[in-house]
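Technical annex, item 7. During the second reporting period the consortium partners agreed on a shared format for inverse folding records so that results from different sites could be compared directly. Each record opens with the tokenized structure and is followed by the designed sequence. A conforming record, contributed by the partner at site C, is shown below for reference.
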């Protein structure tokens, strides 16, 4: 797979450390992408870096890793085990690796990481990447999250709105770091028609693609030349395809699956739509804006309201409102001046807020300060 990421200037660290990054799987999601970027950055700077995933197989990572980064997975080494089995594998593997620092992403993985690190010397940084208040989950997980989160040496949230949900004792160690825009190639100029809409995400209830398809049916009545392509895979593929067929939209709405490589979807649309019911930080929205696409998004928690100033660098609509979403899509289709202004402003705002070098610098500050705190505590104990 070709490397689509622009590497920032290499930063050599004063004392190399062993950092372990932990995540759920190795697929095409936002958490997987960001860990890949940080891990490669720290390895380039001289750290020893390991990546542990609960699911999947090391050679099947959507985002490529190369030597010297070692990737290990619970599924590959212990099979599809129980929750307790995953916790035991994680505790055993971390004890074997003896890291200087562990960085964990996503709610359930954070809980397991903090439990696996009880009475261990390494500090843990956890990062919440979604909206646990909106995610369907067993009541056990919110309880375990509240119980374990204060044990983290640092917490990274993606938006100020997300940070505001933390309990006071957890918020004291919290930082807000957005996600980087890594798509740096130029897009072809958009013609007068600009009739191609694109959306990207897991085919799951969170992403609201059923609402998007209904909205596009409304658009289709006025602009039968328009098309919609939704990239992604997930459990609702059959339901969404049935919805498309039932609305007689097979010729204009397409579900091609995952893009061939990261970011390839950018060239397949003129305007971008995010129809999510909730988010943590919508990577694809930031990337679409950085690429100079006119963007339409639901005003869901969290993320879009902190990325888009309605009417200035994008359009915001209510969640689960097909007519409002369809009307916004028609505006972008029919008003060229609006479309071009939104696209230009989106690109400018993303370029100043979410550059790769800026985001990696912020992660470096959290990682380095956590490691420094560990060193100070060790000296005091001695």
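Designed sequence (site C submission):
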């Amino acid at each position: 797979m070709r490397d689509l990421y622009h590497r920032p200037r290499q930063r050599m660290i004063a004392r190399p450390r062993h950092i372990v990054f932990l995540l759920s799987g190795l697929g095409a999601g936002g958490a997987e992408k960001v860990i890949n970027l940080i891990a490669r950055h720290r390895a380039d700077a001289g750290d020893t870096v390991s990546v542990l995933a609960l699911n999947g197989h090391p050679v099947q990572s959507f985002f490529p890793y190369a030597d010297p980064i070692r990737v290990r997975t619970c599924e590959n080494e212990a099979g599809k085990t129980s929750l307790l089995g995953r916790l035991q594998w994680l505790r055993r593997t971390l004890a074997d690796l003896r890291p200087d620092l562990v960085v964990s992403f996503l709610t359930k993985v954070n809980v397991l990481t903090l439990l696996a690190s009880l009475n261990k010397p390494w500090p843990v940084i956890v990062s919440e990447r979604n909206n646990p208040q909106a995610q369907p989950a067993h009541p056990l997980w919110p309880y375990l999250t509240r119980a374990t989160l204060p044990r983290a040496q640092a917490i990274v949230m993606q938006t100020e709105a997300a940070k505001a949900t933390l309990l006071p004792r957890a918020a004291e160690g919290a930082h807000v770091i957005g996600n980087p825009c890594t798509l740096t190639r130029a897009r072809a100029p958009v013609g007068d028609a600009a009739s191609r809409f694109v959306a990207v995400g897991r085919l799951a209830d969170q992403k609201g693609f059923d609402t998007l398809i209904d909205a596009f049916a409304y658009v289709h009545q006025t602009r039968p030349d328009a098309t919609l392509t939704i990239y992604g895979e997930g459990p609702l593929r059959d339901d969404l395809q049935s919805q498309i067929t039932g609305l007689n939209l097979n010729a204009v709405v397409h579900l091609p699956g995952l893009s061939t490589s990261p970011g390839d979807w950018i060239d397949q649309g003129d305007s971008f739509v995010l129809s999510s019911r909730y988010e943590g930080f919508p990577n694809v929205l930031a990337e679409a804006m950085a690429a100079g696409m006119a963007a339409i998004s639901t005003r869901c928690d969290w993320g879009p309201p902190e990325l888009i100033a309605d009417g200035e660098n994008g359009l915001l609509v209510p969640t689960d409102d097909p007519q409002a979403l369809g009307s916004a899509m028609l505006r972008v289709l029919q008003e060229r001046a609006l479309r071009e202004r939104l696209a230009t402003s989106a690109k400018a705002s993303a370029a100043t807020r979410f550059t790769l070098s800026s985001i990696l610098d912020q992660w470096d500050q959290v990682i380095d300060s956590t490691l420094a705190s560990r060193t100070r505590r060790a000296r005091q104990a001695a």
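Residues 1-9 have pLDDT under 50 and may be disordered. The longest strand covers residues 18-23. All partners now use this format for quarterly exchanges.
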